[in-house]
Amino acid sequence: MQCGCVAEGAPAVPGSPWISGVAFPDWAYKAESSPGSRQIQLWHFILELLQKEEFRHVIAWQQGEYGEFVIKDPDEVARLWGRRKCKPQMNYDKLSRALRYYYSKRILHKTKGKRFTYQFNFGRPIIVSYPLWGVRAPPPPHLLLGAPALFRPAVLPMGMPSELLHSVLLAQRATVEQLAGHQTTQGLPEATEDKKGSGSGAPRLSSLPAACQLGPCCLLGSPQDELPSLASFTPPLLPSNWTCLSGPFLPSVPPEQQFPGSSKPDTVLPGPRCPPVTRPFPGLRLLAGLGQGAGERLQLWPLRPQGLEVKPYPMMGAKGHLDPREGFSEIHGPKTRDKSPVSPQLENFKAVWPLDPP
DNA sequence: TGCGGAAGAG
DNA sequence: CTCTTCCGCA
C-alpha cells in the first residue's frame, strides 16, 4: 500500500460498496494470517473479489459445489492481484502457481475438468454459527431456501481460519442479500477489536467472550452481544452433519492440515465441550459424548433437510498428512432439495462457534 | 490448461 | 512463510 498501486480492484478501499457498507475488514489483513505485516494473502483477495458484485464477471462463486468458484477472466484477476501486490508482471500463470500452493495447504483444490475453477476446501464441515436468524435484518429463511443453489450450507473446514470463515459467511450473506435485494446496513465483521492480533499463537476470533474460549465451541446466548460482528450474519443453510469443534477435539488434525494463520499451536483449551446449553437447539441432538469418548467428536445433528446427504469425514492418514483433496468431504447439497424443513425453530438456534484450531 | 520443482524476494 | 518468477512436463 505504499507503492501507490493499490486500490482499484481492491475492495478494501473505503467507501467501496462493500456488501454491507463495510470495506473489507481489518481481520483480513491481520498479521496472523498474513506474513510480514498486512500483506493480503491471495485467498483473501480471492474472497474479496468473490464478495464483490462488480467482480462477478471476473470471478464468481460457482453454483453446484460448496466453495467452488470460477475465474471467468483469468487475466483480469491476475491484473487485479498484481495491482494489489504491486506486481505489474503478474499474470494468471503466476497467480495460478500461487493458487496451486494452496492445494497442499488445503485451502483450495482444483475442480478437475472445469477450467479456471477452484474450490475452497470447505470439507470437514464444522458447525458454523448461526447467530439468530433474523436478529437484525437478515432475510427470512424462506429466502434462503428459495435459492438453494446459491446458498450452500456453510460447510467450513476444520482449521479454517476465522478470517476465512468470516469471509465465507460474508460471501454467503452477500449472495443472500443480493438475491433478496436486501440492503443491510450493518453488521459486517468489522474488525471487532482484534487489533491485538498478537501475532501468532493468539486465538483468533478474539471478540469472543471469554466463556467461548473455554471450549472448542460455544453457544451464544445473545449473539448480538457476544459476537457483534457476526450477529447479523445470514446463516447459510444448515449443514446436515456438523462437527463442532476442532483442535483439541480432533486429535487427528495435525498442523499440516491447518489453514494458514491457524497453524499456531496452543491456546484453545479443550475445556468443557459445549458449555452448558441454556437453550438447546431444538431438534438437535448431541451425539458423541459431550463428556468423553474416544473420537471426541461432537456432532450436532440438526434437522436434516431431506435430500441432504453427507459423506463421512475423510480419515486422516495416520501420518497426519492429507492429500489436498483427501480431506475434502463433499456434502452434496440439497440435490433433491425440497426446500423443506429447515425447521421453524431456527430462530431459536444458538450459535455454535468453533474456535480456531490451535 | 494444469502441475509442481526450484530458486529467490521480502 | 507466502508468494513470485521460471520452467519442464503432461
Topology readout:
Layout: H1 42-51, E1 59-61, E2 68-71, H2 74-85, H3 92-105, E3 108-110, E4 117-120, H4 141-146, H5 162-180, E5 219-220, H6 223-226, E6 242-244, E7 285-286, E8 298-301, E9 309-310, E10 331-332, E11 351-352
Antiparallel strand pairs: 1-2, 2-4, 3-4, 5-11, 6-8, 7-8, 9-10
Helix pairs in contact: 1-5, 2-3
The chain binds a DNA duplex (10 and 10 nucleotides) through helix 3.
In short:
Belongs to the ETS family. This protein has about 350 residues and is an alpha+beta fold. Helices cover about 20% and strands about 10% of the residues.
Report the span from N to C terminus: 30 Å
Q: What's the SSE pattern?
A: HEEHHEEHHEHEEEEEE
Largest sheet: 4 strands, antiparallel
State which percent range the strand residues make up: 5-15%
Q: Output the number of helix runs.
A: 6
Output the structural class. Answer: alpha+beta
Helix residue percentage:
10-25%
Shape: globular
Radius of gyration: 19 Å
Low-confidence stretches: 7-36, 124-159, 175-358
Strand order of the largest sheet: 1-2-4-3
Mean pLDDT across all residues, rounded?
A: 49
What's the total number of strands? 11
